[in-house]
Amino acid sequence: MNLRTLVKRTLMAGLLTMSAPVHAGDQMATDFARPPQEAKPWVYWFWLDGNLTREGIIADLEAMKRVGIGGVLIMEISEGTARRSSARTRASSSAKANGLLK
User: Does this model's pTM top 0.85?
Assistant: First the structure.
């Protein structure tokens, strides 16, 4: 192999190697801007003895979806206030409809 061929092959290999991270970086930027569902963060959603309204649940779930929240972990906190029994059922149905609950 002569010197000219060696230089050409070395330059080609270098150019190919340098272009690979650019494509990977483009994909990373795209994934960061629009992450896949499995990469979206989940949040804790604390309920005070289930004192919720249907409108409040829907508004919260829509807001979470709009800002990219991938799911919720609901925790009921008991502080001795009056309890609404159907709030959990309404929230579960709304969360499933918004794709935040499996």
Answer: no
- Compute how many other C-beta atoms are within 10 angstroms of the C-beta atom of residue 1: 6
pLDDT in tens, 56-94: 999 999 999 999 999 999 988 876 666 665 556 666 777
Domains in the chain: boundaries: 1-34, 35-102
- Please answer whether residues 101 and 65 qualify as being in contact, where contact means their C-beta atoms are separated by less than 8 angstroms: no
Going by C-alpha positions, the residue among 94, 98, 46, 32 that lies closest to residue 70 is 98
Instruction: Report the distance separating Cα 5 and Cα 16, nearest Å.
Output: 17
* Tokens standing for residue 15: 């150019």
What is the spatial distance between Cα 74 and Cα 87, in angstroms, rounded to a whole number? 12
